[in-house]
Amino acid sequence: MSTVTMTEQEPSTTGTPMVRADRVRKSFGRLEVLKSVDLSVEAGEVVCMIGRSGSGKSTFLRCINHLERIDGGRLWVDGEVVGYRQRGNRLHELRAKEIARRRTEIGMVFQHFNLFPHKTVLENLIEAPRLVLKEPRDVATDRAIDLLGKVGLASKAKAYPRQLSGGQQQRVAIARALCMRPKLMLFDEPTSALDPELIGEVLDVMRDLADTGMTMVVVTHEMGFARDVADRVVFFDEGRIIEDGPAAQVINDPVHERTRAFVKAVR
Ligand code: ADP
Ligand code: MG
């Protein structure tokens, strides 16, 4: 059976979760986008998030990645309270610099690839490791080339983004995120801007990444991918996760009527 809207999370028994949300709330003005989100993602888990447009999925990912500030509840990444430093039982708000540092530990891939158009693929990959991690050029370059090989684009190091297909650009975006050695990867509908024939190559790269043990939270409506790759699927509905369970069960035999209707519509 899947759990349905937990009100209180049990402490993890398998170590520190990579992500833990406890009654997370977020509003934009009077619009309450996240009403009470509860979620726990263990290290090494792949969790797919599904749900209607506007249900709060992107906002939740942005909260995990310090791009939005939550209004209530509590959010942790790898045991650290998002936005705060904990000393004893007191919380101190983080400065921008410390938030920026924590953000470097989380990779994010968006629907639109956001590559730098005037830089080559290789320059796109080594930019952040050089500027943010202060890595020497040869170290950053070696890893970038290795990662380009892993996403099947070793021959494109010197190409510019506009010379690549959408699927190739998205694979570059994934490699670029991995260059920062993230401990967590967030994907926000990474294939929904792609032509259908290019979706598979991006999902294959994500599947390979999952096989390496990377912790991944993936907003996607690719049900085949979710069923094959995700450990769990969670269903967002109006700012809450109302269903959370093993992928096959949530997709094939959801508990909630709303999940059932949604899954039927996207299948
Ligand atoms: P989803 O990703 O599930 O489609 P979003 O998290 O993008 O949902 O959006 C949830 C709701 O929050 C939508 O109604 C959206 O218009 C609103 N929203 C998102 N970001 C902002 C913002 N920065 N300012 C105001 N409203 C926003
Ligand atoms: Mg979204």
TrEMBL record:
Q: Which residues form the ABC transporter domain?
A: 19-263
Highest taxon, organism lineage: Bacteria
Q: What keywords were assigned to this record?
A: ATP-binding, Nucleotide-binding, Transport
Q: Which GO terms describe its molecular function?
A: ATP binding
One Pfam family linked to the record: ABC_tran
The text of the family note is: Belongs to the ABC transporter superfamily.
Q: PANTHER family annotated for this entry?
A: AMINO ACID IMPORT ATP-BINDING PROTEIN (PTHR43166), PHOSPHONATES IMPORT ATP-BINDING PROTEIN PHNC (PTHR43166:SF4)
Protein name stated in the entry:
Amino acid ABC transporter ATP-binding protein
Species annotation: Nocardioides ginsengisoli
